[in-house]
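Incident log, support desk, overnight shift.

02:14 A customer reports that sequence design results differ from what the structure should imply. Their input is reproduced verbatim below. On-call engineer (initials T.W.) acknowledged and began investigating.
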């Protein structure tokens, strides 16, 4: 190596040494205080943090319950994970030593690059932080009320450099889906007004009908979990498609219980308004929230959860018939002739089942004799002409049902119970519009179920069509049309005759010496 090269390297080393010296000048390691907390508060008790950079635009985060909120420069939900990272970085910040009070200005603390305030349990800690160092790992923090800056790791700058958007939560709402008590969907083909009363949901407009709780839960969950793909400044919104001015669909909800006041008087709530697509790709739509005021883009598929009609939300329970009140069942079956996939002739049949009014005993129901009866003959001399073991009594039908369509044959309790269970309650898989066009069915089933309560009869009439080709059955009850699973046919067809459900009737009580009707004394 020549002299010139050696000289250049020496100069470079000298410059580096000077930079290191001036970067760390004034630093005085204090071993006894090494590791002392800069912000002496518990992280779990922190309720507010303010970070004000040199440009003066403060980021204010406040804790409400278990959630953090971004208060400034915008009002929005905060990402608890990112805020907790900031809290831990400040409350776990340890000093490495101290610098001289005379060097406050030269270290960049007058004015500081950041002003920080941490509030916890009524205690406020204020800090001034020097700029991020270009070389080295030392940063200087001046705690309000202290005269000497503390030396801390420069890694805290990674947290302080974050923008407000870094703390903003993509989830637009913090409301719990279960807390929603009132719900209104405003759309071009009519508004849906819904309320929760007790544990049940009802629709008030456009018609008053009971609603399916799981279907409403899907809507409230979709609102609660609505997530921004991108936040948008209102100034960047297009003139056409701004959801705040011309929404295509809006969803309003409130966590307040409904009252008797008019629908025009709304309680406090939140409105989600959906606008146009953000591009011709139609992947996202613009959305506006009024509380807190927010403009964003959300996935276009989010709209599917709110694109509902009354029949989509109606309670799937069509009717609930109590089996113990049923007195008669009739099923008329009309099967059309087919040639495909196999040849089948047309056929018609009818099943009529009636509840048995009373059990018929074979023979008179004789009164029982006295418990004890005086006898003039000694018990030991009385001749016994009856066998020690009485023969079994007559076999009685135990079925509760009579098949009127099959010469009053006993009906199977199990089959009838299974049939009635389908109507206790009868639930639709899906409701259909009244004008839904249907093809020629391969079979139709007309069902009448008569229920009696306190002498009053109610006849429930159902018509079920089988469209064939493994498609769902189409049923009609009153003004409702709906789909049923194909296996429903199994419950209304087949053999209902009682084959094994029999038992022996108990022998009637007889006075001593008398024989049951139909029995002959021994030797006769």
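02:41 Re-run completed on a clean worker. Output:
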């Amino acid at each position: 190596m020549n002299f010139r090269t050696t000289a250049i390297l020496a100069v470079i080393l000298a410059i580096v040494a000077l930079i290191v010296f001036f970067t760390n000048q004034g630093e005085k390691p204090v071993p006894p205080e090494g590791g002392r907390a800069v912000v002496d508060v518990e992280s779990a008790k922190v309720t507010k943090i303010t970070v004000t950079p040199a440009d003066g635009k403060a980021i204010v985060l406040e804790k409400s319950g278990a959630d953090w909120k971004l208060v400034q420069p915008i009002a929005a939900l905060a990402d608890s994970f990112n805020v907790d990272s900031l809290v831990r970085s400040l409350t776990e910040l340890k000093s490495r030593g101290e610098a001289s009070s005379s060097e406050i200005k030269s270290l960049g603390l007058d004015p500081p690059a950041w002003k920080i305030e941490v509030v916890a349990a009524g205690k406020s800690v204020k800090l001034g932080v020097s700029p991020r160092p270009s070389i080295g790992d030392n940063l200087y923090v001046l705690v309000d009320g202290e005269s000497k800056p503390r030396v801390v790791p420069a890694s805290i700058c990674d947290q302080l450099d974050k923008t407000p958007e870094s703390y903003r939560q993509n989830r637009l709402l913090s409301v719990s889906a279960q807390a929603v008590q009132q719900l209104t969907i405003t759309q071009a083909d009519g508004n849906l007004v819904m309320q929760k009363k007790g544990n049940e949901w009802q629709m008030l407009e456009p018609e008053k009908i009971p609603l399916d709780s799981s279907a409403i839960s899907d809507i409230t969950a979709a609102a609660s979990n609505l997530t921004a793909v991108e936040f948008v400044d209102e100034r960047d919104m297009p003139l056409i498609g701004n959801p705040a001015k011309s929404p295509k669909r809006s969803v309003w909800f409130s966590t307040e219980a409904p009252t008797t006041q008019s629908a025009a008087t709304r309680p406090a709530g939140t409105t989600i308004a959906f606008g146009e697509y953000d591009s011709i790709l139609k992947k996202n739509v613009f959305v506006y929230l009024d509380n807190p005021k927010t403009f964003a883009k959300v996935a276009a598929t989010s709209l599917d959860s709110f694109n509902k009609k009354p029949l989509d939300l109606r309670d799937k329970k069509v009717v609930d018939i109590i089996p113990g009140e049923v007195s008669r069942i009739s099923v008329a079956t009309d099967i059309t002739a087919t040639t495909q996939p196999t040849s089948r002739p047309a056929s018609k049949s009818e099943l009529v089942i009636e509840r048995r009014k009373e059990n018929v005993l074979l023979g008179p129901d004789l009164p029982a004799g006295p418990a004890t009866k005086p006898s003039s003959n000694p018990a030991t001399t009385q001749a016994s002409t009856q066998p020690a073991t009485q023969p079994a009594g007559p076999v009685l039908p135990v079925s509760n049902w009579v098949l009127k369509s099959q010469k009053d044959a006993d009906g199977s309790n199990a089959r009838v119970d299974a049939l009635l269970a389908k109507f206790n309650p009868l639930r639709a898989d899906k409701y259909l519009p009244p004008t839904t066009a249907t093809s020629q069915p391969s079979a139709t089933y007309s069902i009448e179920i008569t229920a009696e309560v306190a002498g009053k009869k109610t006849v429930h009439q159902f018509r079920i069509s089988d469209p064939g080709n493994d498609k769902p059955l189409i049923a009609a009850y009153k003004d409702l049309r709906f789909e049923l699973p194909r296996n429903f046919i199994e419950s209304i067809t087949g053999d209902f005759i009682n084959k094994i459900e029999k038992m022996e009737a108990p022998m009637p009580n007889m006075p001593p010496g008398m024989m049951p009707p139909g029995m002959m004394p021994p030797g006769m």
